[in-house]
Structures are given as C-alpha cells and as structure tokens.
Amino acid sequence: MKKFFTLTLLLLLTAVTAVQAQVNFSVKYKRVNSTTIDIIFTGTAQPGWHIYSTNIGEGGPTRAEFGVDKIKGAKLKGSLKAGPGAKTMQDPIFEMPVTFFEGHATFTQRVELLDKDYELKGYLKYGACNDENCLPPTSVNAKVAGTDGPAPTAESKAEEAAAAAAAQGNALTTATDSMAATATDSAAAMAQVQPLDSAQTQALWTPVIKELKNFGSDTGDMTGKAWYYIFFLGFVGGLVALFTPCVWPIIPMTVSFFLKRSGDRRKGVRDAITYGVSIVVIYVALGLIITTIFGANALNDLSTNAVFNILFFLMLVVFAASFFGGFEITLPSKWGDAVDNKAEKTTGLLSIFLMAFTLSLVSFSCTGPIIGFLLVEVSTSGGSALAPTIGMLGFAVALALPFTLFALFPTWLKSAPKSGGWLNNVKVVLGFLELAFALKFFSVADLAYGWHLLDRETFLALWIVIFALLGIYLLGAIKFPHDDEDERHTSVPRFFLALISLAFAVYMVPGLWGAPVKAVSAFAPPISTQDFNLDPVKIEAKFTDYEAGMAYARQTGKPVMVDFTGHGCVNCRKMELAVWHDAKVRDLLTKDYVLISLYVDEKAPLPEPIEVQENGQATTLRTVGDKWSYLQRSKFGANAQPFYVLLDNNGRPLNSSYSYDENIDKFVTFLKKGLDNYNKQ
To answer: What is the pTM of this model?
Structure first.
C-alpha cells in the first residue's frame, strides 16, 4: 500500500509540474579573454514544445531577452544572441512571422569587464509554447562577479557609469509608461488620457501616512483582530481533528492509563494535565519552527506561488483519497515505535512528553491535512510573524482540552460516544471538504498567473457536484471501502447534515448564470472571470494601473478609490460581492469615483526590475504585484488586503483608509465623506 501511495503521489506531482518541466535551462560562463565573459544559456524543450528566439516583433509572443538587475565594473557588449537551429514561420494566431527553437536552444550574452572588481546580476526572460498551452514569461538568473578584471581607465569608468545608468534608468517612470498598457479600460479612453509629467508622477508616490493618521486611519493594521481570528481558526481545526479515527479512540485509553498507573487520582489528573500541556508545547514549537524557517513574508509569498498552491492542491486531493478509503497515509512506523519505546524506558515528565509526541506522530494521517491547511490560511491572514504559532496554539489547545477535562471528570467517559463507524463517516466528510478546499488553492494559482483553467463557473460546477455527492453519501446512497455495509438506516444528524449539503449545492446553481452566491464569495474566483453572466450589474475597476488611473481621474475631474487587493484575497471577494453590489455603493463607485484595483500578488513581470530603498536595505521589485505592494507600504504604511483609500488628483487622502468591514452603511459614509472633502477643494 505504501508503494501504491508513493506511486500515486509521484504521478500526481508529475502531472502538475509537467507544464513547468517542459522547458529546462542551464547556465554556464565562458571566459573569452581577460576582459570578456560569455554567459551561455542552454535550454532543452520536450517534444512538441518550442522556445521563442530574440528577433520577434512587438505584439507577438514573449521573445528571449537579457535583463539586468545590477551591474558594476562591467557592461553588456551587444544584445542577447541566439544560437543556431532557429526556425521561422508565419504564426496564424499572432499574424506575424515568429522565430523559435525546437528541442534545444542556446542564447549568449557577452559581458565586457571594465574594472578589476566587477559584478553583474541579470536574467534571461523567455517564452515557450506548444500547440495548446504557453508558459508564463519565465526567468533564468545569472551572476558574473570577480576581482580579476582589467585596471580601470578614465574611459572605462565613463562607460561603467553609462552602463549602470542605462541598466537602471528612471525605473519608476519606465515601469509607469509600460504598465499603462495593463489598464483594463478601452483603447479609445486610454488615447484621451494625457500622460503625467515626472513631477506629477513623483507626487503620486509621495508618502501620506501622517495625513491618513490625521483622518483617524489605522492604515489597515488588523493584527489584533487577526490574532483572535487565527486562534479561533486553529481552535476549530483542533476540534475537527478530535473527531477523527486517529485521535478520538486514544482519549479514553490515555486518560484511563494516567488514572490507573499511579493509583492516586490527584497524581493521575496532574499527569493528564501535563500530557495536555505537552501537546500544546509540541504544536506551538511546530509553529515557531515554521516561522523561523520561512518567516511570515515568505509564507505570504508562497500563498500565491503557482507551484506551492498546486502542490498543496495535490496534497489535499491525495489526503481526500485516503480519507475515502483508497489507501492509508502514515508516517514510518519506526518513528512512532522509537518514541514509544523511549517513553516506556523513561519516567516522570519526559515520559509523559514522549507519549504526547507519539500521539502527534500516529495521528498524522488525520491531523496532517488540517495542520497544513491551517498554516497556509494563518500565514496570509494576519501578516504577523507569530501567525503560524498562534494558529498552532489554538489547534493544540482544542486537541489537548479533552484529555485534561476527562481526567478531571472521569465519569464523563461513560457518556462519551464510543468509537465506531461514525468516526469513519467523519473521515469521509472531511475528505469531501478537503476536495472542495483543494480547488481554492488551485484557483489562487490560476488567478495569479492568468491561466484561466478554473474560472468561476467551472469552480462552482465542481463545488455543486462535490456537495451534492456529500449529501447523497450522508443519506447512505454511496458507500466507501471502510464504511459499515450493515448500516441500513440514516441517523437523524446525518439526515440534517445531508439536507444542509444538498441545499448548499442547490444554492450555488444560480451562480452558474452570474448570481452573486455571497456564501462562497470568499472561495470562488471573482465574477469577472465568468464567461456566461446574465447579471447586468458589474462592478469592475476601470484601471489596474495606478498612474494611468490617476491620470484619467485628473482629466475627468473625479476623486479616486484605490483598491489594494489580491487574487488570493478571501476578504476582498467578500467585500466585492457583499458591499460593492449594493445599489448605493455601486452608484458611488461607478458615477462619482474612478476605481483603481491594484493586485499585490500579480505575477506578471515588470518590463525591468525596479530597485528601491526600504528600511535601509535595497529591495528589487520584479513583478507587477511587487510594485503595488511597495506602493501600499511606502505611500500608505499598510500591508493588508483589502485596503481602500480615497485620493484627490494629486494623490492626497480625502478620508481615513478602510479595511475589511461588510457594514454597507459604514462604507457608504466612507465614500460620501471622501466625495465631500474632494468637492470642498
């Protein structure tokens, strides 16, 4: 069975990484002479895939280019050169000739050394497609550094300065000019917008943190509230883990062991409490380890990373299959045996701690997916480095509480439900829920990278089927391998749960035609991804570029609402459906304001990286999302989503900021106050 599970997991991982693995690049460096180095990129493409070359015109597929992040003591000598073997043909989609490689591709960038100490950090950006799919623009990093360059001359110093200026340029202005093309308004409207000059653009980026505080803004700091939510989320996860076949049967056995081994009830209670505290310590330590290794920012970045989300999607699918009875997932038995044997050989507190550690290992098959889901959720909920630790604290408290309570009140054990088939039913229900939540993680990757594989109607269709099947299972019409075949009746609790599940499935059906279905707005992709939408009410941002939207607002004489959002932002979707679609809010947003939505997790690369100074350190902005996240931090002093701020045409605030709050009247007041302050200017 272990071999089956391993093979299944490998097949699934292969399937998800197939697209990414179709093209692989390696980098090597060749010293041509004392002043020249060649950076050679060698790519290998799987059959059916091709890599685009360098000489492709504008409006075509992603061409191969060499970009520079940092350059010192060197300069690029010429542009990126493509190797032999390229083919050229007329592409019917782009309606232009394109040049590409099949099988193998080689690109060379020559670097001329100008100083004894030199350093160049750059990357190859390339595009690749087959007849059905295309990879998103992908980068391959390269670095050239050393202290064996030529002695500098006056001429070489001038060339070095010119090369650095050309590589960096006016980064923000360059990005602004190119990013205007990402605005979602019509080409005709964009043609009428007068571009901003450099002084106006600089003003738009000027920090306004003090002004927001003067309005009474908290700059979106939701840390305190988030901690309560994170602890509660962890606590609920721990309660769910209790009612699984891996944990529930252990409770009476463990409590009875503590009460009997000492012969002293008081000591038995003390041991049981120590056991519960040990569980808390173990899981809190796990949260601290996760935070130490990754950090809150890394976890937040991973939350919209395609590979991470797809791998987590697959993990949940595999665990769901296990919960359905397909196979059993366990940690190596020798781990648990080793800890158990160690516990038997020791005494005192160490023995109790090792017993708690044994529980953590043997219950992994049930607690693993719950903990994994919890860590992903809490890492993106509070923005705090303590988020994983607080989440694990809530989980551990819920898990340890029954051991302590049953030790204090042993008579409760007699009235507690006995282990039986109902635990398997709980496990199957969790399997259905894991399958549903797995789609959320795939959706995040799909939205962040613009694949459009799981648009809203597809997502809803899958959820309708999943929850309909869950209802049918609860009614006893579906049996899984570990279910009790002799069970011929449906219990009352199962009937009501089936009723809720089937009703929920029916509730989502109108969403296939554009109904808001607010109950799933936190999980489903935004309604803008739906192709078939009969709902005439559409509240979408006219602009997804800050400077372009501000230029349009200046020309039309309207204030601006900047919406800092994210493809993977749960509360953002809730606000959009629960608040924005209200008639009063809709009229204000569409008639009186220019709405600009900035996605902080947008993975589209910038035309060239932007190097900025933040907290005394140099930070490189590589993607569109990096740029908007930096704007939110530097100008508004916030880093949470959703985050709404009202601005005049000079980028000055008109009111305090607004974060997640589904109070429609409060949001209307927020918008009207900003409009009144704008009209007073």
So the answer is: 0.51
